[in-house]
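Example record for the data management plan.
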Amino acid sequence: MLFRGLVGTPQGSGQLGRLRTPFPMCVTRFYLLVLLSGLATSGVLPVSGMRVYTSGEVEAVNGTDVRLKCTFQSSSPITPAMITVSWSFRPLGHGHEESVFYYHERPYPPTDGRFHKRATWAGDIMGRDASIVVREVKFTYNGTFSCQVKNPPDVHGNAGEVKLNVVTTASFSEIVILAAAIGGAIMLMVIFLVIIMSIRRCRYKRQEEEEGVEELPRRERKDPTVW
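Corresponding structural encoding:
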């Protein structure tokens, strides 16, 4: 009975204890969150601010050139002497990953491998563009290209990926887009020519009317003796 009396508490006081217990923990978590936010803002804790964006998936016809777009955003100022860009390639299946391109202050094309004399720099570091161009693509280029950008202290972040699909001929969607672009250009030219011809006709008609108004008084003054 004595043990039960020491351990047991009234129902009301038990509820009060359960209500009071989480309050100090919430306050502690709040102060901890504020402390971590202040450290991150002051630069004591490293914050990753690098974001890399790519087109995701690209289709190219065998033997043509293709641009692999890669742009980035960094929370740190862009420093050309510090920033690095690394492109790598992972073929379909179980092939090993290999380097495609490297940039640090200047381009470093591959000196060997399947992309030797095939990959060229097409980016602009100050414009936050790390794109490259792969020339005369082959079917062996089917796979995933990865773009990694580092701008110290932003050295951690996601790597952008581009899946390249090399095909024999252009897909139906690309043909439709090309046909629509050509048709739109022809339509604009036709509209432009129609506008020019309309303006010329209006000017010619106005000139004829002005000449007719000038000739009318001359005919009336030609023979004043005639009644």
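Summary line stored alongside the record: Residues 1-24, 30-47 have pLDDT under 50 and may be disordered.
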